[in-house]
Here is the input.
Amino acid sequence: MKQKKIWGDLEEEIFMDCPKGLEEAKPTNALVLKKCIYGLVQAARQYHKKAVQILQKIGFEGGDVDPCLYVWKNNKGIVFIAIYVDDNLLVGNKEAIDKTIELLQKEGFNLKIEDNLEDYLSCNIHFSKSGNSAWLGQLHLIANLNRKFGKSVETLREYKTPGTPGYGVSRPTDEDQKISMTEQSLYQSGIGMLLYLVKHSRPDIANAVRKCTKVLDGASTYAYREMLQIIKYVLDTKDYGLRIDPIYKKNKPWDLVCYSDSDYAGDSDTRRSVSAFILYVCSVPISWRSKAQQSVTLSNSEAKWVALSELVKEVIFVSQLLTSMKIHVQHPIIVRVDNVGAIFMAQNVTTTSQTKHVDIRYKFVNEYVEDGIVKIIFVKSKENDADIFTKNLNGELHATHSSKFVKKK
Here is the structure.
């Protein structure tokens, strides 16, 4: 739904020139704005505050964990509202949604109501006939990629993986290896589009794209070719999107299952490791990451430990978010790691000379393990879903892992 007539209140004095045609329009006169108008820096923030104020007046609660998510449980049922500027998403009981819309209209909202999610915030969401599963893709973005890079990749062969197995992007050591300024601009544009694709619907290309982001300020010819390979792979698999096949039992707590992984000193330039994880809620992937760690680690177990701490932070946030939505979460939350040393560090309360330099992360994870909120268990590397986010895998392994969180439309 789109809001058209509710305007945010200004909290400071802002003056503007009188528009042409106004009787009082003189060089010495000015208008004082009372409400936000399009183009003001404050507009989005003030609209959000106004919208939240009205929602709370109606009876919605929330905003503590996520300031854009509110919930209302009334005599008709439960309804959630996600606020994205003026494109708001209502999910819940049909009668509760109808009641919410009625009350919002009484409060002055002029609403444009869409009954489906086939095109929402540049994402395409298609439900199965039963309504029990769905597919989320970004067809608009892929079409833009095709318009911009289609001719550049049309002669390339079909690839089984988005990134070259075993290949790592490095900074060019010779000026002759760098691409031209025109190509550099295209490189930045292409990687930016791919990052937005990774964010919402294509976790399977996350590691290959992350590698390419290292040289956004000066890519080599090899990095440029790698980007073209990723784009070619995306265009050839344009019908693939996020798999949404929830598995849950009615009136039972929701399951959170997570996988954590890292490489060790894989970056040849900085020797930093990569933290990676994927988090499932009722078997649906909702959060994933492939990101270089902020500092150099001294062992494989330590690198896995740092990656694990990043995942636990995300787990706690998601758990708190679901609780704020009045959804019960199954505890302990299962976290799977493929390193026995990292698991030992999570269960051992003693700080040693080998781990004291990561003591804060150590204590943070250990606290939630001791409280029974998180349970860390071992998983074989070949069964670790997060493995795809730390390295460019071969075709067989990539297909095995990616099939768990992306599927064909």
